[in-house]
């Protein structure tokens, strides 16, 4: 799935993305999430981008959390930013999510559409 360059998602792009999220293999999903979360499109996710993602996920899903969004973001970077450059490359993101259960759960929950599909 390729993101549109015009800043808008048409119906077919929406259907393709929805299909990927619902039926895609784990690595395909993680690669798609990475592109979605790389807000500035520079090929890396920095701390600020990840922090905003975590805050948004928590705002949508609610619930109590043992750690703040900032602490969680720092913990993710400590665990999966292999080269320590303060940015997550696509490879670090995918490999880190595979190796870190807590991070994987947060990423999978971020676009969990099962409740929406159940309503439809």
UniProtKB/TrEMBL annotation:
InterPro entries referenced in this protein's UniProt entry, alphabetically: EF-hand-dom_pair (IPR011992), EF_Hand_1_Ca_BS (IPR018247), EF_hand_dom (IPR002048), Recoverin (IPR028846)
Domain of life, source organism: Eukaryota
Single GO molecular function: calcium ion binding
All copies of domain EF-hand, residue ranges: 25-60, 68-103
Record-linked SUPFAM superfamilies: EF-hand
Keywords assigned by UniProt, alphabetized: Calcium, Metal-binding, Repeat
PROSITE patterns associated with the record: EF_HAND_1 (PS00018), EF_HAND_2 (PS50222)
PANTHER family named among the record's database cross-references: CALCIUM BINDING PROTEINS, EF-HAND DOMAIN-CONTAINING PROTEIN
Protein name, as recorded: GUC1A protein
Organism: Pachyramphus minor
């Amino acid at each position: 799935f390729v993101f549109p360059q015009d800043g808008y998602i048409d119906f077919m792009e929406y259907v393709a993305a929805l299909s990927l999220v619902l039926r895609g293999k784990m690595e395909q999903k993680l690669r798609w999430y990475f592109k979605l979360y790389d807000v500035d499109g520079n090929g890396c996710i920095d701390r600020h981008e990840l922090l905003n993602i975590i805050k948004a996920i928590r705002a949508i899903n609610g619930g109590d959390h043992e750690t703040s969004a900032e602490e969680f973001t720092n913990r993710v970077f400590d665990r999966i930013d292999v080269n320590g450059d303060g940015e997550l490359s696509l490879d670090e993101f995918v490999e880190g999510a595979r190796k870190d259960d807590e991070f994987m759960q947060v990423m999978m929950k971020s676009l969990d559409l099962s409740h929406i599909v159940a309503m439809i």
